[in-house]
Specification:
By secondary structure, the protein is an alpha+beta fold. It folds into three domains: 3-89, no CATH class; 123-229, Butyryl-CoA Dehydrogenase, subunit A, domain 2; 233-385, Butyryl-CoA Dehydrogenase, subunit A, domain 3 (Up-down Bundle). Helix content is 50%, strand content 15%. It is built from eleven helices and nine strands. It has helices at 3-20, 37-49, 66-76, 82-86, 92-102, 105-117, 232-268, 280-308, 314-339, 350-360, 367-385; strands at 122-125, 145-149, 152-163, 170-177, 180-187, 193-197, 210-221, 270-271, 274-275. Helix 5 (92-102) runs antiparallel to helix 7 (232-268). The longest helix has 37 residues, at 232-268. It is globular and about 80 Å long. The termini are far apart. InterPro entries: Acyl-CoA_dehydrogenase, Acyl-CoA_Oxase/DH_mid-dom, Acyl-CoA_Oxase/DH_mid-dom_sf, AcylCo_DH-like_C, AcylCo_DH/oxidase_C, AcylCoA_DH/ox_N_sf, AcylCoA_DH/oxidase_NM_dom_sf. Residues 125-199 form the Acyl-CoA oxidase/dehydrogenase middle domain. Its cofactor is FAD. Residues 230-378 form the Acyl-CoA dehydrogenase/oxidase C-terminal domain. Pfam families: Acyl-CoA_dh_1, Acyl-CoA_dh_M.
Length: 388
Amino acid sequence: MTESATEIAARVEAFVRDIVAPFEKDPRRDDHNCPTEDVIADLRVLARKADVMTPHIRADGSHLTHRETAQVLIASGLSPLGPLACNTAAPDEGNIYLLGKVGSEDLKRRFLDPLVAGTARSAFFMSEPWEDGGSGSDPSMMQTTCKPDGNHWVVNGRKCWITGAAQAQIGIVMAKAEQGACMFLVDLPNPAIRIVHQPKTIDNSLPGGHCTVEIENLRIPADQMLGEPGEGFKYAQVRLAPARLTHCMRWLGACIRCNEIATDYANRRQAFGKHLIDHEGVGFMLADNLIDLQQARLMIDWTADALDRGERAGRESSMTKVAVSEALMRVADRCVQVMGGTGVSDATIVEQVFREIRAFRIYDGPSEVHRWSLAKGIKRHWEKSQGA
């Protein structure tokens, strides 16, 4: 770990604990209970002042290593508002990574630079309604189409669970052509992309919801295709393996903070003649939290090291996504249990983190899909060892 990365992480942690955390009580919320644009704008003014805006991207545009990024993003996740304030939140963080790896210089100037500066937010249009037979965990089922028309491509289809779509200025749209899957960059809002539903969901830390949209005759200039025609699924993997890991980083930070809150509560609250921490039923839960938190950190570092060695790390990221999401669910659940009635109220962030960790076990691949993928790999390895 470089000294500069350690210093950045320390600066982010101080900012999130001292400046961002008080905003958790800010009453400015929309009708989905998400922070409003005013809150985000205020936080980002403060982040720039503290020099922690997009802290995982160096001044020359290069990224910190994945191992260094872990240290920084864990610190940003110490508050549910921290990733928004520091511009390390999904989907922007993953889209920044993808554009940095695949985008042309022109596309970087037009779309990446505003994302890094924190002056624009983005959405990634991949999942589709199951009622249409569309893609979810199985991207090969994609129904949205794109067809060339002169120097444009025309896109038609429906997408769902598009995080942040209602308030994004930049979109990455996936569609299938004769050559295979393609990715396009578009300015938002766009009259050809219409939001038809924004459900209320179990999570509410990110603005813009998880929208269902209809795309009708969306004309995109050919030079706004990301990479080459037919390479969309390959580019999706460039994005998804690190994105699974950065989700783990942010939520680890949130659960570290929850465990701190629960530990403080257990050491202050008395029942049956002694502090809660002195009751084994409570003390052991907090001890198990330490074990799960440490194991989560080790899994994150292990996969980050693989990515830093230039490996695809699909297997590692799947294992880490499953192990960390489920470990952190246990941590958040124990924190609620330790705190009793206080744990299910809005007195602290524990209740919110508990809800949102549940959603984390689904997005970027449910645990069952990752286990299925790992099982297929086990079978392939066995068949290869048998000379099959």
